[in-house]
Amino acid sequence: MKKNQSSTVFKQEISSGWQFRDALNDIWRPAAVPGCVHTDLLAECLIPDPCVGTNEHDIQWVGETDWVYQTHFVCTPELLEHENLELVFNGLDTYAKVYVNDSLLLSADNMFRQWRADATPMLKPGENKITLFFRNVFDETIPKYNAAPFELQALPNNDQGEPRVAMYSRKAQFHYGWDWGPRLVTCGIWKPIVLEAWDLFRITQVQIRQPETGPKEAIIATDLEIESTCDQTVAITITADTVTLCSVKQQLKRGRNAITLEGALRRPRLWWSNGLGAPYLYQYTAVVASEGGSRTDTYQSELGVRSLQIVREKDASGTSMYVLLNGVPVFMKGANYIPLDNFQNRVTHHRHELIVKSAAEANMNMLRVWGGGIFEDDSFYDLCDKYGILIWQDMLFACAMYPGDEAFLSSVKQEVIDNIRRIRNHASIALYCGNNENEAGWEQWGWKEQYSACERAAAESNLKKLYYETIPEALTIADSTRYYHPTSPSAGFESQGPEDGDIHYWGVWHGKEPFEQYEAHIARFVSEYGFQSYPELASIEKFSESEDREFDSTVMLSHQRCMADNRRDKRYGHRLIQTYMDRYFRKPKDFSSFLYVSQILQSLGVQTAAESHRRAMPYCMGSLYWQLNDCWPVASWSSIDYYGKWKALHYAAKKFFAPVLIAPKIEEDSVKFHIVSDEPESVWGDVSIVLREFSGKILFVTTYPVTMRANTSRVCATLPKHELLGTADERRVVLVSRFTTLAGLKAENFSYFVPPKDLELEVPAYTITSKPMKNGFELSIFSSTLAKHVHLTCPDVDGFFSDNYFDLLPNEIKTLTFATDQKNIREIERKIRVVSLIDSY
Fold first, then answer.
1. How many CA atoms lie within 13 A of 253 on its CB side?
2. 236, 297, 488, 507: which could form a disulfide with 513 (CB 3.0–4.6 Å)?
3. CA 273: distance to chain centroid?
4. pTM of the complete model
């Protein structure tokens, strides 16, 4: 690069020519950077696919081995003439020594940090060598474990073994195994390495703040940090779309310069969360130019103009916890998000978009980025901005105790600063949270009882130093504009009741409590709850052989990681599903039927919870189920499996998270018809209540005019059960409640008076018609008798059904779409398969 080019900053990614080897072996093999050692070994056919069979267990040696990565890159004499040369390592996993031309440049010990170093003294004209030595995490952490004054407690997730050392490394905790994920302890260069060369000045930090935001005007403040090589005058111009927010001359001093500039947007287009309005994004640009404008540095971003508060106020019920967006209280509907893969280099923009778009299509407006994973790639946050999905961002601590020594806390502080500076300008970031369940573990799970009084005091001191001092101090530096929630759950244990914050409720599932108990455990915000299911058969076929498809097989047990506390009972998760299935459903006839019913069971449980949360609005203002996605093919709490297939739960979420919900509650003597509206304006319409036999005969009909004020929940009707049912057989009727406006059907719900196992279903005879449409087909399905939980598949055809696992009412046509590239309508009609609940008997 020539120095007279317009930019003051030159960036060159060092991504080609990489090789790797075992540290004790001299054989070099090709490597991909960014990447990780497991995928490099896979590419060379040196290990089997860990997602398949029980291969995961055979490759544990990879995480116990030291590895070396190396490449060569060229520096031109012109490049070396720049005043400053830095090598930037955006992500090294985890313990690495970096050498340039055989001289030590830096040592890294934190997967989440960005590492920068002045490379000027080490670079030379022509070819340069860069070498990274990765030491395995166990050789680093076991000595720390052995030297610790007391053992740190943690949930025995998966089969990570003893000693528990994950907490001593600043590395993604789920890599060590979890109750939904494999134990694959990675290492490598997981984010790009960039050579940066610059002269005159460069923009080092930009924070975009919105001190005042309203429909008439938004004040946009920009905090710039500019590093300058000399005293000089520059021009700074900041724009949002075509609007110039400010344009000034600025005197820079040699070194770092902190500058704050403000400008106004008149009648701004506001950013709204999904369901409330468009998530409009301005194209934001800050340009710093030398005198005469011949040299510039530019920062570009997308700017969502919005005001956002997390309201924690004392009220008659306790302490509130809700999102106030642009002055509007918003009920948070969504799920907990885990990393999409154990190997982050396999996570593409397409995979990120599939999952974020799927969340939006299910009417979600919030995802909680869970603390045992990673700070996600920029692509993820960009997509959340685009689709209007707010982010609850955990700091990366989960289900464990952590050290409190100065070196550990110092590393955490810088890790938080690095990542929050990277993500803070995203409109989607709603709040930061210190940890997942670590205080709950200390207070509820018997951890503190393991220690002497002296050890207990030291452990509590470590906890407070980490979550109440170190992380808040880092956030004060990186982003003081957002609410910080020290721990989740913040309520529901010890003296902190559910009326004072967020809870994680696991009485259903681990506590074996019936689904109906969800209605008795409602808090101001429910940030975790859930139920397991298996993936569908097509997904299981990808990682198993036909002989493996039994629940007691070694392969199926390996892909069911929810074990009892002693980690010896590998059938624990399966038995829990079986226990609940026996309560609500008849025994499935075979393996594939069990998979199908497990998904129906999961959707029924989570629907019960979510509807009870929404009915309790505004006391309860958040419902985030566990969990949205998977990091490998597994039985888990996810609503979308590893291969991107929607489970029954995700289709159900699209309905129970809809902007308007009608949610009848069947009580002992009556039925209360609740309507919940998240709409920003009042809605007028009619509620129709119809009781139908499975054969189609109508037994009861009534209609009520209803006005739903914006953002409210109310009971629109209460009917005695004897008036509704008369002499009808509860086992043979469905209660259909619908809310219809002039614009059409806004909400509907199908309710039953007995559990699914007691329903007297008849075998449906389906009529299916199809017609071509852009990007697929429109399907119409009809039956003269009720078909419950209709599941459509089209084997060997890549496609997506707009609805699935639905109840098909008798004598009503159900219309949906099947998106696919397949154009042959006869082939589609021939291949479509229909299964309903009665087929599982």
1. 4
2. 507
3. 16
4. 0.97
